[in-house]
Amino acid sequence: MKEEEQKKIFNGWIKVHSALLFKIVRAYAFNEVDREELFQEITIQLWRSIPSFRGDAAVTTWMYRISLNTALRWAASEQKHRQGVKPIGEIEHVLMEKPNQQDERLSWLYEEIAGLHEIDRSLTLLLLDGFSYKEMAQMLGISESNIGVKLHRIKKYLIDRSKKAKHNGI
Fold this sequence. Notes:
2 domains, Arc Repressor Mutant, subunit A, 8 helices, Rna Polymerase Sigma Factor, Chain: A, mainly alpha
């Protein structure tokens, strides 16, 4: 594949599917610097993988798979790097917040999603983006029935957390 063709494909996919990438980045990176780093890692991996795209799956399915795998590797690497290192403090997220924040319910949802185990986090993002159980199973390498069970448990967990948050005035 010629570089010019690869560049055209890459730019088109990024233009159309950037929201998909931002969702994954936000679910795995928790401050602006990390988000920028993870976004860069994902886009580099997507660029490198374009020549191997065969069209067997939808572009979004393929991009999700690469993005999720990159995010999981990045998160594991960051966790190893940060073991034993304390962040600036418990108020680090406050320092990074922008004054014009989005709906606090959406922020709450992203915080809850970020607190899920990696596979559950991935499933939740895939569900929010409207992927079928079959597509999710292909991306994550688990059975459709397992997807259904996990998603049922995740929904129940988030509903329970939501009720507790409302009860506590959040």
